[in-house]
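Model it.
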Amino acid sequence: MSFSTLGLSEPLLKAVADEGYSTPSPIQAQAIPAVLEGRDVMAAAQTGTGKTAGFTLPLLHGLSKGQPAKANQVRALVLTPTRELAAQVAESVETYGKYLNLRSAVVFGGVKINPQMMRLRKGVDILIATPGRLLDLYQQNAMSFQKLEVLILDEADRMLDMGFIHDIRRVLKALPNKRQNLMFSATFSEDIRDLAKTIVSNPVEISVTPRNSTAVSVTQWIHPVDKNQKRHLLVELINQHKWEQVLVFSRTKRGANRLAEFLEKKDIQAAAIHGNKSQGARTRALSEFKSGALRVLVATDIAARGLDIEQLPQVVNLDLPEVAQDYVHRIGRTGRAGATGQAISLVSADEAQLLRDIERLIQTLLPRKLVEGYEPENKLPEFALRPPAKPKKPKKPKPPQAASDKGPAENDRKRRPNNAQSPKRRRSNNRNNPKSARPPRAQ
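Modeled.
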């Protein structure tokens, strides 16, 4: 199969050829025809398999057939959970749409809002946004969704989790009911799938790989180590293996800052990116990492969604993520587009349950490799692989109890013997007539 057999227009095929692509990936081969048919789509595939082009190409094709957006109008909305992912999608739209007369814009927080408002005044065919900044702009009447045709949730599982669901519901209220809905992600939990189905209508469900699976091109293993030795072991691994480009994940922003400072003191060029960093600092650190000026980029999970770094050889989990699905997204930063990669996790005994959840999710026991001189004093327990937890079935409601027309109070009286008095009444009688409380005198 080639892109030319999918029904895409000549300008799009030319842009695809310019990028050196001729054969669509499995997710693209299945998603593009479904989107072109106007169907709602829920698509799951591993990271690095071309999901972005899977919705960008048919979106551009469909919009190019209609009337351009007028002032303040938005024809298609792409929502992403992070600024980095929004920028990546915007770059993809520009790359594949360069031969089309369509306008696009990307908006997210951390930068001035006025230039974004000015761009929206002219109207855009495709708007890529993070939920918070989108709502800010909408409340200032910077855009109108009356002519919206398509809604896309990229990394839909994160978009619909508890951190974003309230913003998403506010956005949905502003959109027209008649629209095409597309959801793309690497992972779909059962809860998220159920919630997603309340948004889409009769969707085409596409899953080209087992849900929550990791790419076979990524070699994974763990190094058991005590918590206080993790940073030192990381330095040992970088120097021993001569790693020149490694993405390291930290669970907290403070931990990311501390690790970057520690590595700098060890003469290893490093920088941290996380939600407290300005957008300028995040963009600069990512650019320097891609160019090779930085050997190590330390990130929190904001970078697990949206970082697209060609030929990234190593990903290291200094801390395991609290949510098992985030492990899949983290290690998906390497081994992209058919390349090979390595994913190494430094695991201490206090993370045993997190490791167990990850192995159960991906249905793989990760190999353990001890590093000489860093053998842990607190042993990491061994686990047996269990099947993933099945979603709990909702409890059946209890049947209502039968009650007479006279109500529950009357029913209670009926169940009481005829000669019985309520405790309150009995106490009242005894108080008013003390003699009645005494037992009868023996005859």
